[in-house]
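Input.
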Amino acid sequence: MNIAAFFIRRPVTTTLIMLAILFFGMVGYRLLPVSDLPNVDFPTLQVSVNLPGASPETMASSVATPLERQFSTIAGLDSMTSTNALGITQITLQFNLSRDIDAAAQDVQAMITKASRQLPDLPSPPSYQKVNPADSPILYLVMTSPTLPLSVVNDYADTFIAPRISMISGVAQVQVFGSQKFAVRIQLDPRALATRGIGIDEAANAVRTGNVNLPTGTLWGPSQTVTLQANGQLLAAEAYRPLIVAYRNGSPVRLQEIGRVINSVENDKTANWYNQVPAIVLAIQRQPGTNTVQVVDSIKKLLPGFQAQMPAGINLTTLYDRSVSIRASVNDVKFTLFLSLCLVVLVIFLFLRSLSSTIIPSMVLPFSIIGTFSAMYLLGFNLDNLSLMALTLCVGFVVDDAIVMLENIVRHIEHGEGILEASLNGSKEIGFTIISMTLSLVAVFIPVLFMGGIIGRLLNEFAVTIGIAILVSGFVSLTLTPMLCSRFLRPAHEEHYHRIYEVSEQFFKRMIQAYERSLKLALQHRRAVLAFSALIFVVTIVLFVVIPKGFLPSEDMGQIFGITEAAQGISFDSMKEHQLKVAAVVSQDPNVASFMSGVGPVGPFVGTNTGRVMLRLKPRAERRLSADEVIQELRPKLAQIPGVRVFLQNPPPIRIGGSLSKSQYQFTLQSPNTEELFAVAPVLEANL
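Output.
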């Protein structure tokens, strides 16, 4: 049976099939999402509970413990980490890769409802989000204003921009760093209260009753209905000051007589700076399993509309964009793929030394690569570094089948057969061999498909992509290659050889003679050859043992993230001073383009003695140091700042854990006795 005979005798059909492969491959390529690595994020959910005023010990015992007891019964839960601080509890639930995150979210909601009877009286029920707290935000947006107060800027960030971005598919949450919500602060004077015999509860009730916004009612007439509106809500400090708190000796005691009423912000124990200028920073995190570039592109489409609808005094700037480094790395791999294609075609031409003989096997390359894109789209793959690396590696594989088919047909032509007859006979002889070669190459990558865990998920796309490319090349070699041979090859006596052919022919003859002499020499000294081979084998094993090993190599994404930490119990003002000193050191580094700095609890940072810095580095061509080298240069400078420690790290491409750490490696101590943990932790740190 000759599979290629049908395609040789029907060149129009073969051409249409190849054009269809080319067309659908190009369509698939345009629709493929771009990413740095395949989507391998663990399904992660974060549960947040607020109880203002409760100590961390109270939050752990009365809030975290009942919830953890229920969460531990959920199937597929790999790890559960809870963080308790003043008035807040955050529980991070990380499920195994086989769990669907939507189904896991339903189970978490059910467990929250079940545990609600054991929880104290909370101001709001527990909430959860599909987000990995350890995963770095994919986009930082900065809002500053030289004229408007930050409370006004915060209103636009919190009520206008953040909700609309949160509605975009793939966005997990939008964190507002340095939130400055407008609020009126009333600072009562204890001596003034005692002198007039007024309690704090009386002042609180007076404020509560004097600031109401309740429905008034409706007037029903014979022909018209009127809704009454009486807004008694107070919006500024000036409106609160005349409030009557009580009557003493027949005279009213107003709020301004027993304390200070000022316009302020809801939380004055948080601050954020952009290049040492007070700012509001929006940190946008994606949902696990979503494509970074698609999410960022969707957000960027809204930015011009945001800027047009905000006052001219508010500046909206992009501090960091994760998709820029992803596109740059993918473009580098695309160039490598194109270069490898050119080199393979050049090598074929150097050895075949015929333009027609070079074009025929070279046609397999574009059809195999482009045809793979359509299958990748149908399988839901990304155009990432691993899939493009698979296509780059298979360039040498896919052309082998076509060369074998071409050489066998040429052999029949050299024996005197006609072009069509040689194509039919040569393809019939070699058809089964090409099928066996194709399937054997694909079989090499089958074990990768059965690998488990995050490594298996990473390499699954790699193995499938390279397998599809090899199968497409086998099909093209059995169809297009013999058809082109039957139309474009010529007998040897009709070929016109040029000067390059004659020169190269002498070179190849000498190369064959040299190989023949070396082969005879090796056969004459078999023991020496075996000993040399054994030595290479031993050296290979030694090098494998001593070579450094790791999960993924460090990648320069143009971003450095850092956590600052001061002593427990430090005041907010003192923490601000330390943070500004850190910012001053960072701002002097020539490799830093811009940076964000902040203090105060926000997102995964629940401690009052911690801060954060995010450095955006200059493009790689404009700086002399890589991201890791910049960190090594900054560490001794930052270590000279007294009272604060700075932990800088180059964010890895993949975050495996669900908790944010201050370094690449961390140890976890567990004990039912909290005092024992506090006693042992310094000992472990000293021994490390």
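The chain has a mean pLDDT of 85.
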